[in-house]
Amino acid sequence: MREPFVVDEMQEAVLDSVRRFVTDEILPVSADLDANTDPEESFSWEIVEKADAAGIRTMTLPEEWGGIGADYLTTGMVVEELAMGDIGISVVMAQTLKIAQIMMEALSEDQQQRFIPRFRDDPRGLLAIGITEPENGSNYFVHGDWSFNTRAEKVDGGWKINGMKHFVSNSNRANVFLLFVQTEKDKDLFSGSTCFILSNQTPGFSLGQVHNKMGERLANNAEMIFQDCFVPDADVVGEIGNGFQILADFFPASNAYAGASVLGNAVATYEMTLEWAKNRIQGGKALIEHDGIRTQLAEMHMMLDVARTYIRKATWAADNRDTVPWDPALGALPKVYASQIAWQIATWAMEIHGGSGFMKEIGLEKRVRDAAAFLHSDGVNRTLFLKAADYLYRD
Q1: Of the candidates 326, 327, 332, 311, which has an alpha carbon nearest to the alpha carbon of residue 141?
Q2: Which string of DSSP letters, residue by residue, matches 46-66?
């Protein structure tokens, strides 16, 4: 069902490698990791190290930096395949892959030389981006008078940062971070925030609680705490007060990667349900022989193909911004649609499985919990609709 979107031999080879990785390294352990009550124990360094050995962790770095230079389209395909194994692993890698792409475009040559080897050369090297705060979540997707509560004060030679971020994917695991904080007090976060790059060893930076999530448990999200955290002027990314332009210029596929994660989980849910319908006998015949079930499965198939096509359009467009005008709605809507159909497929799958779908031993309930994550992750859907509407109808 996925092959028509493989457009060249390189992508096909990459995806074959990723599928083997999912089969050999993720599927055998994902349920047990998910079942751990301590969220930190649901994370697996072993999987990260094996992803490094397979070339997945650094694949978006250019060849001269040790990667394969995977573009947005290929990376989106990889993210979907990883989520077929587990949505949490997909998120861990998607965050790292996309931030590596940003670093190659947004960092100065000096910053690249200092921070990219730190990430690249550590088999456990992961990346994270600190934006969301307790008081600022989805509102950073739409313009208003609000500003970040995490603030940086100019001091001799750099900036002193105080405040907190939370819900940040990979934040308790990453060794390099991009951080968005308020640097101009009298402006909103769109015109008065700045991006910094820092390592996990930066004095004044510490971690708070690791959030105990309903689903997507193989990815950790945690608080980032800054107490007089000094970051030198050399580690300002871009221009002071222009942090959000970095997101606009170098973050085009973030939403599509989120959509690819939830899509991969939905594909696995569909395939599990299809097999169940072929083998479960009710009313004297397999479930799939009942017209209502068979047509519902066909509708699931349709929704998955539409979601994938939308995501492919967004990632292809991100790769071709120099030749094709970029549609800003593609930075908001593919994830919305994918998460909506994924939730619909999850609930239909539960109904088709009957009472068995409610039991942990089948494995479907995990897929349902995981599907719920992206109704809000990477932006609450209602807010993303507003973001897209502002782009579409602002004139």
Answers
A1: 332
A2: HHHHHHHHTT-TTTTS-GGGT
